[in-house]
TrEMBL record:
<dbReference type="Pfam" id="PF14322">
    <property type="entry name" value="SusD-like_3"/>
</dbReference>
<dbReference type="GO" id="GO:0009279">
    <property type="term" value="C:cell outer membrane"/>
</dbReference>
<dbReference type="InterPro" id="IPR033985">
    <property type="entry name" value="SusD-like_N"/>
</dbReference>
<dbReference type="InterPro" id="IPR012944">
    <property type="entry name" value="SusD_RagB_dom"/>
</dbReference>
<keyword id="KW-0998">Cell outer membrane</keyword>
<dbReference type="InterPro" id="IPR011990">
    <property type="entry name" value="TPR-like_helical_dom_sf"/>
</dbReference>
<protein>
    <submittedName>
        <fullName>RagB/SusD family nutrient uptake outer membrane protein</fullName>
    </submittedName>
</protein>
<keyword id="KW-0472">Membrane</keyword>
<feature type="domain" description="RagB/SusD">
    <location>
        <begin position="358"/>
        <end position="463"/>
    </location>
</feature>
<dbReference type="Pfam" id="PF07980">
    <property type="entry name" value="SusD_RagB"/>
</dbReference>
<comment type="similarity">
    <text>Belongs to the SusD family.</text>
</comment>
<keyword id="KW-0732">Signal</keyword>
<feature type="domain" description="SusD-like N-terminal">
    <location>
        <begin position="32"/>
        <end position="230"/>
    </location>
</feature>
Length: 500
């Protein structure tokens, strides 16, 4: 039975890995900023069947895998500015700029993120543009394709506004506009994000089975809808009425038994290959070794020349010492979050321990002993969670506290998370809105570190200048600039007001 389940969950990953042909085809619709060479085969004459439009949807999922998106840069850009990690002087200078808040409009990573996320948007728009001209096996099949496509477009756009604030509004109706503006587009973009997630929620199944495991679900759509409201409510949008909306959506997720969400009894079990689609899973970057769908997250966080991994590590995203010191020694998450001890991979009996022979704190979360089939340092199969159930629980507590103040309802989610960690439960009667807010920010950093939430959490709660104390921060630290390369080629783009 286990073997059959593993085979089924691989089918979706195989489906994504087959997107190379369509990926190249959609190049003519991918960017409003680059001149393209048109071949004789274009979207105009490609989309003739349901299989063709499915291939187009595959290409949208494939864009999410790109190193420009969650395959690397989106993840790093959300992690390095946080409290928990730093780049250990590795790789691109941009990583140190993120960590130390010294970035500029010319910093290299901003262009790749902007281009990667808009590539995802434009592929989705292409699918939506041609979807009505296709004959489907059933109306439900068409709705499913549209819903998954709109979920992915909403995800890309939500990520864009969380990084850059003001971005161009590009849909299937204006996808051919060469120089779209980002002035006066905020309301349109937010409406698109909310509408895309609501449509996906209304159509997609509560969970997927068989070959569909790994694709977007109603639970993922509702979680992202709650996250969109949470983002709207915080800095810089400050739409305080959205706190209650976020709390309402998160509570619906918690109470919806059809989703099947829950926490594993042990934090150690959350990130294993065997549980990557179990009860804590909501939506992840789907990875698999040996088929062009692996990534280097274990390599990135593994110990360089430490005889820890068969293919070695890079020590490129490592833990801050003050962060490991901030976690209670009795916290049950500690041994999975950090590398506290491991045997020498060469089997010589040597055992390394922190802080005696592991002198630099490292993360352990995305390293699994069973993830041992990689053919290279960028071919690991451990999924990267984009959101999971504990994120929902903590979002609910945050939104409830901001909407109504500390209460039994406001501490419900955070206490479920803390109970698994073996920590004392919070009592709302002894807390103010401000102290509970600080506790939630801290809990999110312990629970969700290394998963791409840090910058967004600190930004939303206006906490960067308060909690980042190692480097100077300013108002600019709360937003990324429009990439200078994009401004150079698009006369209608305007730099963020804080960078003018």
């Amino acid at each position: 039975m286990t073997l059959n389940w593993k085979k089924m969950k691989k089918n979706f990953k195989i489906w994504i890995s087959s997107a190379l042909f369509v990926t190249s085809l959609l190049g003519c619709h991918e960017s409003f900023l680059e001149e393209k060479v048109f071949d004789s085969l274009t979207p105009i004459n490609f989309y003739k069947s349901e299989a063709d439009i499915q291939a187009g949807l595959t290409a949208v999922y494939n864009a999410m895998h790109s190193g420009d998106c969650w395959g690397r840069q989106v993840w790093l850009a959300a992690e390095y500015p946080g409290e928990s990690s730093w780049p250990n002087s590795s790789g691109e200078a941009w990583r140190t700029e993120l960590d130390q808040y010294t970035w500029t409009p010319s910093s290299t990573g901003f262009k790749t993120i902007w281009s990667g996320l808009f590539r995802m948007v434009n592929r989705a728009n292409t699918v939506l543009q041609y979807a009505d001209g296709i004959t489907y096996s059933s109306p439900a099949k068409k709705d499913q394709i549209l819903a998954e496509t709109r979920f992915l477009r909403g995800l890309a756009y939500l990520t864009l506004v969380r990084f850059f604030d003001h971005v161009p509004y590009v849909t299937e109706q204006n996808t051919n506009e060469l120089y779209p503006t980002n002035e006066g587009t905020d309301d349109q973009v937010w409406s698109l994000i909310i509408d895309d997630f609501k449509f996906a929620l209304s159509v997609l199944p509560p969970k997927n089975t068989g070959a569909n495991i790994g694709r977007a679900t109603a639970g993922a759509a509702q979680t992202m809808l709650a996250k969109a409201y949470l983002t709207q409510a915080g800095k810089p949008w400050n739409k305080t009425e959205s706190w209650a909306l976020a709390a309402e959506e998160a509570n619906k997720i918690i109470n919806n038994t059809a989703y099947g969400y829950g926490l594993h009894a042990s934090y150690d079990n959350v990130f294993t290959l065997a549980n990557e689609h179990a009860q804590e899973y909501v939506f992840s970057l789907e990875l698999e070794s040996g088929m062009g769908l692996g990534k280097d997250f274990p390599t990135f966080t593994g110990i360089r020349s430490g005889n820890q991994l068969r293919l070695d590590g890079w020590s490129s995203l490592v833990a801050e010492k003050k962060f490991i010191d901030s976690m209670d020694p009795t916290d049950q998450r500690r041994s999975k979050t950090f590398v506290l001890t491991y045997p020498d991979i060469r089997g010589n009996g040597t055992v390394y321990t922190y802080p005696q022979t592991i002198t630099l704190p490292h993360f352990n979360k995305l390293i699994n002993a069973d993830d041992n089939k990689a053919t290279g340092t960028g071919d690991y199969a451990t999924n990267l969670p984009i959101t999971r159930y504990s994120d929902v629980l903590l979002m609910h507590s945050e939104a409830e506290n901001e909407a109504k103040g500390p209460s039994a309802e406001a501490v419900k989610g955070i206490n479920i998370v803390r109970q698994r960690a073996g920590l004392a439960l919070l009592t709302p009667g002894s807390m103010t809105k401000a102290t509970l807010r600080d506790a939630i920010i801290q809990e999110r950093s312990w629970e969700l570190c290394e998963e791409g939430h840090a910058f967004f959490d600190l930004k939303r709660q206006d906490a960067i200048t308060k909690r980042i104390t190692s480097f100077p921060t300013t108002a600019k630290s709360y937003v990324f600039p429009v990439p200078q390369d994009e401004l150079d080629v698009n006369p209608n783009l305007k730099q963020h007001p804080l960078y003018r």
